[in-house]
Hints:
This protein is of the alpha+beta class. The chain is built from 6 helices and 3 strands. The longest helix has 22 residues.
Amino acid sequence: MRRETAYKLAGRKHDNGAHHAASGVAKTREIRFKDFPPGQAAQAWRSLAALRGVQVEAGRDELTLVVHYNVLDFTLQLLDEALVNAGFHLDRSLLIRLHRALIYYVEDTQVHNLRSPERLIKQSHEVYIQAYAHHPHGDRDDTPPELREFK
Length: 151
């Protein structure tokens, strides 16, 4: 049975566009650059600000930028890769790389979970009841009653 059929039979309405307010799709992340070449954070600010859906602000020092984005539109990995491909040099210290890898994993998992349909957990038996009720042969037995009770 296809997933769409199961949802329809269980009476579920799955809205792909609506997400809970507490689902955490709005992200605020810090991007840290190497100190050489100088001034690349300012150039990256202009590049990131040109993206629709990304807000950029200055970080705690001249080597960092704080970006705000929706995880369904962008991920930190996508932004970092775009910056590296544009020629910017991100900080690659061990702690920063571990932190970045954890964020990549968390955001990837969150996007996957948000884009996948809900699972039928509590109403799964209803799906099979409805499917059986719509089955062409139903629950009839064409055998005459006297032959059913034959001993």
